[in-house]
Amino acid sequence: MTTGASDTKDLALADRRRWLSGLPPATPRPWWKRLLRSPMLWLTLVLVPFYCYCLASQYMMLHPDRTFPDGTVALGLNNEAIRIAAFWAMWTALAYFLLFVWLDRFRLQRPLTWLLTFAWGACASTWISIHVNSWAGEMMQTTQADADAGTRPAIFIAPFIEEASKATVLFLLVILYRTRIVSQLSIVTLAGLSAIGFAFVENIIYYGRVIVYAMNTIEVEDPQEAVMSMVMLRGVYTSFGHPLFTMMTALGLAVALGARSKWVRVTAPLGGFLLAAGGHMLFNGVASLNPVDALRTQWFMALALVGVLILYLIFSVVAETRLIRRRLTDLHRVGWLQERDVVVISSPLRRIKLLTAALFRGPRTWWHTARFIRLVTELAHTRAQVTRGTVGPGADDRCHELVHQIESLRPKALTETLGLAVIPPRRRRRPTPPVPVHPQQGWYS
Predict the structure, then answer these.
(1) Is residue 208 within 8 Å of residue 80, measured between CB atoms?
(2) Which GO biological process annotations does it have (predicted)?
(3) Which of 191, 271, 411, 422 lies in disulfide reach of 250, CB 3.0 to 4.6 Å?
(4) Reported pTM
(5) Residue 198: its pLDDT value, please?
(6) Strand 66-67 versus strand 73-74 pairing type
(7) Cα–Cα distance, 178 to 168 (Å, whole number)
């Protein structure tokens, strides 16, 4: 009895050490206990009703017409305008969504994480921003009617509120679900998804206002041309804005997660946020104060910033590849992995070839192959955290568990690309030899 109680206590202490290190527990639990202990379950149960409330609140705010004290009427967004605006805003959001999901191919997040992050930007962030920006605009109004009354909140208030609301979900996921967020590309992906969710709803509002104005104003000769002009401006030419600025905050958070200094962990996210808000402020200022040359100026800004972003993403992919190769080489030297595992898993093209070939061999083979790649990648990142000293002592036990799981999946998954045909060749059936027919023998033979 004493030995059993001591073992149970040791397991509980080991699980607590692993939990403090952001690692899954070693003690096996039933699926329903794992589900109840999952932060993602409770996060989903809390956020989904909150998202519905945010959308309903914005609809009730923007749908009815508003009458001002001077007698002027601001037309609200009707259902037809919202439907048309959502159709045009959908394509920009879909293109950026696929781009960021493709970028997160090294350490894939769960689809539920992607959807919750996108919905945060589309629902919660827009709801917070529209209320705070409206309140700030009322506070900054003056008794004089000047041209700057509408630009002040857009330049001095909106950047800070919008960037803070979009980045809140990143800090929430890092705190509650830090086991899966281990690389810069993962944080950049989540930041981009939150930003394009925000831009998706914001584009619906802008497109809807143009549609309502064009349909109710006789001075607009071609409503379709007016709508498409706004779609090209916000959905194509300046669509990079929100993802780019939110990714600056994400980079500061990524630096903080990989640093051992407490000072860096505090100042890096703050510096990234100030850089994002400053860039957003400059972007809005150019668009608001110089409307004639705004599109041309923003286009040159886009070329420069997108070029820098593309270079950063390329260097990030190369750095991620080198990190995985170095850490897997360490594990190969101690005999935990095979030599070809280092070559195959550290190459993005070979990983894609494995998953594509497994897809043509059935869902079970694809699932085992994807899980094999994910576990080896997690092993590399766990080893990297050990070498940096950013994880607790429970990481050694986790590495042993990952090695055992990898070896159990090796016979069921595709692990080698040499000589692997993406589409398996069809096996030719050998023709069945004819059955010899012998003459029946009579009774007399």
Answers:
(1) no
(2) proteolysis
(3) 191
(4) 0.78
(5) 95
(6) antiparallel
(7) 15
